[in-house]
Every structure is written in structure tokens, then in C-alpha cells.
Amino acid sequence: MMEIYRSELSQKFVELFLEKMEFTEEEFSITLSYFKREYVPRKYFYLKAGQISRQRAYINKGSTRTFTSDEKGGEHILFFAFEDWWVGDLESYYNQQPASVNVQAMEDCELLVISKTDLENLWIQIPKLKKLFEQKEQRASFATMHRLQEVKSLSAEERYQNLLNKFPQIFQRIPLQYIAMYLDIEPQSLSRMRKRLSGK
Amino acid sequence: MMEIYRSELSQKFVELFLEKMEFTEEEFSITLSYFKREYVPRKYFYLKAGQISRQRAYINKGSTRTFTSDEKGGEHILFFAFEDWWVGDLESYYNQQPASVNVQAMEDCELLVISKTDLENLWIQIPKLKKLFEQKEQRASFATMHRLQEVKSLSAEERYQNLLNKFPQIFQRIPLQYIAMYLDIEPQSLSRMRKRLSGK
């Protein structure tokens, strides 16, 4: 198996373990030895609806969209994710049932992945690892709740502002038609809105 | 403080602890001694947006709606909840920040509540209690994800069918205009849809 070198890791990944979770160097080395690198080129899928999610994935580089498809082939974007986010389908992962969402690379992605079995073994060795994943899951849960509230209550313009606040560089990294899809508006409306609001 | 008698508890609450979580009778008695009863009459609020959620609440009897309000006074229903559900705003509870949602009684409610401080003390005594709340939170998180997917991808008719599958008695317990609000359709459209689909 190819080793992952420290120099190839994003600074945030190192900080997550060594600073936020206060791992020792040894605990971090052990943890890292369980992770594998997975490349997902742009437009390829990390996870397809119907598959079973058997690992956790950290975005070391790149971006993804998480979306569902309807019967008519329509696609509905639930989330974008960039560096330092974890992606996947947690219900599929925990219950080993088919995923209900797709995760597709929007740019060439370098993921750091750890299998369910490895993670379960590892957190027997390093119990505070469980805490880290619990925190990440709680964050993901709150983010899902925010997104639901926003989709139900906010106007397209308010949702646009939220997105820009969260990801100021999104227009440099994600094609406009996908951002429009996320906002549930037409690409032309998004172009007009963008022009109008940036002219303020 | 008024004691809660076993005979007043829903069977499901007793089963949750004694069967699903395999509590001993003693553990269950200790746990129960920390819970308080809280009555919330129909139309009253258990939680208002802006307040801080300082306790967990189990619906022993009754039903609630969880909703957000927009700037124009519009209300957006995220969830209904009936007996054997837990309600509140978890992000507010964990981060002790203002709640972003309202929880209002749709029928006279009898809740079994436990404060944050009591719960934290209690799960030092009974560690498996933590597991129970973790499971409930994970379920709530998955339910939020399902709701987001449904709101983004499904037609009003499909969302109506999902709701009926989940709560077959909903029309007997929740006024039609609230069900229409949950589905984001006009009450008249819901009446027509209901007639059409029940005539099949």
C-alpha cells in the first residue's frame, strides 16, 4: 500500500488531529497509516445512489456535489463540499444500506479515505477518534438542518447570499449552471441576480 | 417535585428503556426521577425561535409542529411529531445558542422533559443513557436528511404519500391547512388531491 506522506496532507487535516483533537505524534501516525488516498477525476463519482457507502472520505483537494435524481432524470443538489469537508452518505454507512445520494467530483479530487472496519478497529486503539467523528457528524446534521430551513423559508436571493458567505470563491470553482441548480433557479436568473447584486 | 408514576407513561417510553436499552428496573427508576412532566396546551409553544433550548422533551401524549418564520410572517413547517418522538432544537441545546425553530403544540401535549444539566449528571451514573440519546440524534439527523431530499426532489403528491405512509392518522389529528403548509401547497389543492387519491 502506498504510504501517505505528511507533506502531501492539507494543513487543516494535520491541525484537525494534532491541534483540535490533541493527538500525540504517535497517535497521528497510527491514524494516518489507516487512511488511503483516492483520486476522483472531475465529473467522476465518488459514490452513486444505490451503492453501499463503506468508508469515510475527507476532501484533501477538490470539490464535490451531493445530489439526488428524480424519476424524470432531474438532479437536485443538496450540498457542495470543498477542502476540509467529509463527504458520503452517513445513513448508508451506518446501516449498510443503499445510498440515497450521489457524490460527484466537481474538480479533480484527492480524498483521504478510511474503511468502516479500519475505523472501528482504530477507535478501539484511539478512543478520542470516536469523539472526532461524533463532532463531524453533529456538524453535518446541523448543516442539513440549516439547508432544510433555507430551502423551505428563504428566497432564491437569500439562499444565494448564504452560499456566497459560506464559499466566497464558489463562482471560480463551480460552473454557473450547477450553482443555479443548487439554488433551484434558471442559469439566466442567476446571471442577472449576480450582476444586480455585485453592482450594489 | 411531582413524581411521575409508571402507569402514566406511554408503553413505548417504558419499552425504550427496559427493552431496547436493556435498563435494569433500578436504572429506569433513577432515570425517571430526573424527568419532569410538562403540559403544553394546544396552540401554545414548547419552544420559540430565539429562546435557548435547555432540555430534551419526549412526547408522551399529543403532537407538535416544528416550523420557521420568514421576514414576511410566513410559516414553514419542517416536521410534525407525535407520541414517542423527541422534539426541540438540538443545535440550540448543544451550543446554548438561540433556537432557529419554533415547536408548537398541535394538540394538548404531555411532555416528559429532562434538563441538560440533569441529563449530563445522569449519564455519568448510567453511561448507556448516552448511547440512547446518540441513537435518537442519529435518527433525527437521518430524518432531516430525508426531509431535505423530499423537499428538493419530490412532487407534492409524492410528499403527500410519504406523509400518509408515515402518519396514517394525520388527517384525524392535524388540521388540513397545516398539512397543506407542510406540503407547500394550497389547502384547496390538498383537498382535491386527497379526494382524487382516495378515490383510486
As a whole number of angstroms, the C-alpha radius of gyration of chain A is 18 Å
Architecture per CATH nomenclature, i.e. the level-2 architecture of the domain at 6-129 in chain A = Sandwich
Which two chains form the greatest contact, residue counts included? A-B, 29 and 29 residues
- Can you count the helices of chain A? 9
* Low-pLDDT regions of chain A: none
Summarize the structure.
The structure is a homodimer of 200-residue chains. Chain A has helices at 11-20, 25-34, 90-95, 116-125, 128-153, 156-166, 170-173, 176-183, 187-198, and strands spanning 36-40, 45-47, 55-61, 64-69, 75-81, 86-87, 102-105, 109-115. The first copy, chain A, is α+β, with helices and mostly antiparallel strands and 200 residues long.
Summarize this structure as a short list of keywords or feature phrases:
homodimer, Jelly Rolls, alpha+beta, four-stranded antiparallel beta sheet, 200 residues
